[in-house]
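User: Can you help me understand a structure? I only have the sequence.
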Amino acid sequence: MKLLSVVIPCYNSQEYMRYCIESLLPGGENVELLIVNDGSVDRTAAIADEYAQKYPTIVKVIHQENGGHGEAVNAGIRNASGLYLKVVDSDDWVDTRAYLKILSTLNDFMVEEKSVDMILSNFVYEKENAKYKKVMKYENVLPEGVIFSWDDIKRFRKGQYILMHSVIYRTQLLRDCGLKLPKHTFYVDNLFVYVPLEHVKNMYYINVDFYRYFIGREDQSIQECVMIKRIDQQIKVNKLMLEQVQIKNIKNPKLHQYMLHQLEIVTVISAILAIRSGTAENLSKKKELWMYIKDKDVELYRRLRYGMMGGLMNLPGRPGRSISVGAYKITQRLVGFN
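Assistant: Let's start by predicting it. Here is the structure, written out as tokens:
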């Protein structure tokens, strides 16, 4: 059995997928690379097949009709044979030394017959034209060098959260929790991280800058102008997070606090996109989202709506919206995200 399955969703990725794949090949026979060609119409399929032919014991290609990023991840989970699973998008890459350290740790778990539900590491925002590279670290929150539980974590800062880039899940946990991402929907990485969390009993943090998260392509889904055009999908994912995890039923106070923290960030992004668009239609969608949350869970609504971030996103009138945008821009600069 392989230590790690790496799922690489690819859609028209011919320009950059080689760099991603090459960064993952140093894992050798310990790793299974699952390249999922999600209905590409360029040379993605041919490049994927080329790697499968060259590295038949490492690379496996899955060709499927276009189903979107979520369906590509679903296909990877279905076909994975590794003990652990990582998703690496085709325009991103990994650091070799950090990668080998992570694989060594996974091997130690296997040899010592230790089962860990989630492994966390740092990721770097590889933002084009940025003066410095923002690194998302967790050393202030998570213990190092030991297997730990939710009881052992400290409080996450505003703007510090777990993304798909920082997480490796135990493959069977993803299957057991019934994770299934929606088709033809952007921003499902939020669901990939969020939904399994309540099933995670133990974790391990490796303090290395492993994942390199590229930001800069004009058509990238996280570009603000693109996100505004796709605000319906952002709100859809926001609602699915509410539907698929009942925060009020989570008993562990530290896990409860973190789940609230993550949901708050996603909801704030939904709200600010509506404000930034400036259209009456999208402002109406923002109001409807808050009503949806209130109908689902009044206590949760109060925590989100009247917290610091929720309050800033709901200041009345045009002057209030200007303050909301200003606060968001400051957060962008401090945190380093788009």
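Now, to help you interpret it: The longest strand covers residues 203-215. The chain has two domains: 4-215, 224-335. Let me know which part you'd like to focus on.
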